[in-house]
Specification:
It holds the Pfam family AIF-1. Residues 29-64, 65-100 form the EF-hand domain. GO terms for molecular function: calcium ion binding. Residues 134-172 form a coiled coil. The protein is mainly α. The chain folds into two domains: 18-113, Recoverin, domain 1, CATH 1.10.238.10; 122-177. The chain is built from eight helices and two strands. Strands 1-2 form a two-stranded antiparallel ribbon. The radius of gyration is 28 Å and the shape is elongated.
Length: 178
């Protein structure tokens, strides 16, 4: 049974939230793992992660945030403006992270990164993304190494030219001293 959307007890005319239907980019296993993480930090067991629960979550994940930082994290995905995260809004964090829509220094980026689903349990789709990211990082590292090599070659060339100019100067100088 998925974590519900809205108030405990159904809330009347609200439609039922189906994570698998709306967040098709995630596998069922990923959704289960995210739901488990959500439930783990929903200390009040009310179907929401409020400011204090988010504070505890970020501390346990090793990325403590300021009070203002926590409020901004909630505000970034809080669609119903209730100043707490429903499971759907919690999933939006991971959707935005996967789409590269979170700033590197934001608390939500840290949350998504620190609570990443392990690649070994994520399956082929996740492994593909993991290896594509690794290949991109390797390419960037290679480009960086190439730039360093080019700079070193330029320095060697300049040192060789300086050496040749000094030798030419000494040769010219010796003709005047004889």
């Amino acid at each position: 049974r998925a974590v519900g959307e809205g108030s405990p007890g159904g809330g009347g005319g609200r439609r039922v939230f189906s994570p698998a239907g709306e967040f098709r980019e995630f596998s069922r296993r990923q959704l289960r793992d995210m739901e488990r993480l959500f439930r783990q930090y929903d200390a009040g067991k009310d179907g929401f992660i409020d400011l204090m629960e988010l504070k505890l979550m970020m501390e346990k994940l090793g990325a403590p945030q300021t009070h203002l930082g926590l409020k901004n994290m909630i505000k970034e995905v809080d669609e119903d403006l209730d100043s707490k995260l429903s499971f759907r809004e919690f999933l939006l964090i991971f959707r935005k992270a996967a789409a590269g829509e979170l700033q590197e220094d934001s608390g939500l980026h840290a949350l998504a990164r620190l609570s990443e689903i392990d690649v070994s349990t994520e399956g082929v789709k996740g492994a593909k993304n993991f290896f594509e990211a690794k290949a991109q990082a390797i390419n960037e590292a290679s480009r960086f190494e190439e730039e360093i090599r080019a700079e070193q070659e330029e320095k060697k060339k300049q040192a060789e030219e300086l050496k040749q100019r000094k030798a030419a100067f000494k040769e010219l100088q010796s003709t005047f001293t004889q």
